[in-house]
Amino acid sequence: MLKTYKILISGLVQGVGFRPHVYNWALKFSLSGSVSNNEIGVIIYVSGIEKCVKDFYNKLLNFPPPVSSIKESSIVEIEFQNFEDFKIIPSSKDGQLNLPLTPDFAICEDCKNDIKSTNNHRYNYAFTTCVNCGPRYAITETFPFERKNTSIHEFPMCTTCEDEYMNPSNRRFHSQTNTCSTCGISLKLINKKGEIVETSELNLFQKINNLLSNGHIIAIKNTSGYLLCCQADNEEVVNKLRVKKNRPKKPFAVLYPSLIQLQTEFILNEQQLKSLTSVVRPITIISSHNYKGNLALNAIAPSLKQLGVMLPYTGILQLLANELDFPIVATSGNIYGSPITSKNEDAFEKLKEVADYFLQHNLKIQQPQDDSVVKFSTKFKQQILFRRSRGLAPNYLDCNINSNEKILAMGADLKSSVAFYPNQYLYISQYIGNLENYDVYNRFIETTGSFLTVFEQQPSIILIDKHPNYHSSEYGKELAQKTNSTIVEVQHHEAHFSAILGEHNLFNEKVLGVVFDGTGFGDDATIWGGEFFNYEENKIDRINHFEYFDWLLGDKMAKEPRVSLLSLISEEKYELVTEKFTSNELKTYITLKKSNTLKTSSVGRLFDAVCSLLNIVDYNSYEGEAAILMENKVIDYKLSSCKSYLNTIENGISSKEIIENIGVDFKNGNSKERIILNFLYTLAHVIVENAISNKYKHVACSGGVFQNATLVDMLLELAPKEINLYFHKNLSPNDENCSFGQLMYYLNIKN
Q: Is the pTM of this model over 0.70?
């Protein structure tokens, strides 16, 4: 007996080839009906023999398309309908969206082969995609994910593409991003005068290869924004790019033409390999210790023994890689501190003094995104996300929220992101940047507005940081007035702690929270940054912190490690800093220190002070440079040979005592590596001692300091087996997680 069923499948099921996947399984089971996208996912009406329908349903759930992710599904019998056949029908939208947004996917092996094959009509076509790969979020205007709702709708399909689109046996069956060189997106290479140099697909990437080989800098418009590229083994041109981009020391990422070439120059572990070849294809930070290749390493990553590397993830980069026999620097297309550029006119205007040539195309990028960045700790291979962006944003699927409120979380100012809960799903934006920059602030406003537009929702609750001068908080207040929303303030470090609680779903446990970072406005109007919290029964209490020391000279302290050192040393030790300041500076700053009232518990500034004391760096040219340079001194360690620079924590956790004991070791000739290891061990020991003395079984760590992979490894090694340690894995430990943390705080913590 034939029956009819309605099947709903929700999750990451749009823009991933789910409808053609359903269609093909329906044919195999001799079923009739239809499949379409709607505002909550995929809706299927199917008629057939009951067993066949149930088997069909199980196949869909157990063997979904490779880049999909099913969250919920249901099957119910409905009144019998007699369908002639099985069809994919156009999407309908009868309400507000309630589904994940589809992230961008790296180019698949099949599409790589298509653009390489001279017999394929997509040979050398840079925007070759299929249901398994290509841009999604970057080109999204609205949802459901249909061609008409993306910027690719400006390129109507030719007859050949239309035939593929309608052919169930073709992997481009109902591929919404389907184009070819006949009907699709066009490229052109221009010089800095705006003159066209090349447009031919056959010659374009060979021409770019020649220009890179001859020491030129090229701004390449990728599918998520511009990249500035140059030959990575040409020290002169890499240094030229540094000067022009105004990025004196922050490391560049390097794009390798192939995994084979990368593996001939570096040793990669299993986690790094998996990361580099995943559908996200992030920048992956690897060790460059004992590197023997030809990269201009000191120009690319000054004074570092690590390097961010990646493989081609779009047709554009793959076609370029097919011509290259050398790696290239591939860094965000911007002037340092500004957001990534995505519009041709803006890029030409802003980068014409940086790039010699521009590779442009005529596809509009709706959501510009930087590359995501990840690192794995050496001993325990713990994943540490440095930047969550292309390929990961804007979804956050591993989260159980049950609220009827529409909640917008504005995050922090330094490494900003926005989180929005408008339906049954949570959305966290791509990394936006430092809101002190005017263009970044505008991008932050645009990103927030895009969320509200796509979901056709206004927030009822807006969450902001307690810092009185954060730009994100000020904009949150403005938006609350316009939308008649309720403003709720969340303390910065409690947001961090709530973020790690939420990521690991620890709200039913008693947890010690450890939040170490550079700065955050505390409830007592001091600058927090070395905090211990207790969480239990939906309540957070601050139970301990690093002892306060003087916060001097405002933002200057975060930019100049020498100032942190001056703050932490006693008067009789001022000889340690006499060569770091002019006599007038020292006299003025000592006077300020004597009258200073603003205090801090910041572990981030403690890192800076140690770095200055060891004469590693006195001025940060980029955020977190001191901490990165310190970790870079460490090659390996044995925990048994490490010691703590604190005699006891019973009378407080004294940063001044740590600095004093480090000063003694340094004066006695101990190596910088040994001192740094002891310092990191001290921090790990403090955390474990706090956990043991207060009988915690769960310890959750957040804040930018936990980007230090050696500290993470030490903690994992030092903690007794009865203590469970939790670190961020799907979010960055830095301020990017604050928007998520604010939302978790609001939903789970009682004030």
A: yes
